């Protein structure tokens, strides 16, 4: 169950229960990391979850063992998202180093501790069918989208992962920002791009901040 290239991205949204064993949770993270898996933890705001685990690994078996270990540690995993790192078809011509960075990202980016995750898809409606739109037009809209994002260079970093055939939406978007208000600004700004305003569909948003698991639980 190994990826041919790139990494699987697993987001697990969990709640603490009376039986949660913090030591066992920490041990689950250590075991996953020892098995070539990147794991970060984020404290969640709001009622949807207490903690988000974001794990990147090439082997699905490692991710499944990690998920099971968290459940055995007494966490209630109430939501999840499965996706894979990918190089977009609109990224043609980018330097090889940047392309490899998209397939094998290293998280978390230094100094960007505000955290946001949400899934999204492109519409297939009669008046706005992304997949029936010619490639050149789609590429033009994606270039506009990228230009908007670059205005936040140094303030936000993202991991865009594909989930078509793997989960309920088509992409997962993970944002790391220098402060919570930057997350709001970048999402709001980019929603005015035609590719989002006309074609974007969004799932639930999970927001919080990166921290050590001992401090979260």
Describe this structure in words.
The mean pLDDT is about 95. The chain has an 8-stranded antiparallel beta barrel. Helix 1 packs antiparallel against helix 2. The protein has about 220 residues and is α+β, with helices and mostly antiparallel strands. The two termini are about 30 Å apart. It is globular. It has 7 helices and 11 strands.
Distance between the termini: 31 Å
Poorly predicted tracts of residues: none
Structural class: alpha+beta
Computed over alpha carbons, the radius of gyration is 18 Å
Give the proportion of residues in helices. 25-40%
The count of DSSP E runs of length 2 or more, i.e. the number of strands, is: 11
* Lateral strand order in the biggest sheet: 1-3-2-11-5-9-8-4
**General shape:** globular
SS strand fraction: 25-35%
Question: What is the H-and-E element order?
Answer: EHEEHEHEEEHEEHHEEH
Overall pLDDT: 93
Q: Report the total helices.
A: 7
Please summarize the sheet with the most strands: 8 strands, antiparallel, barrel
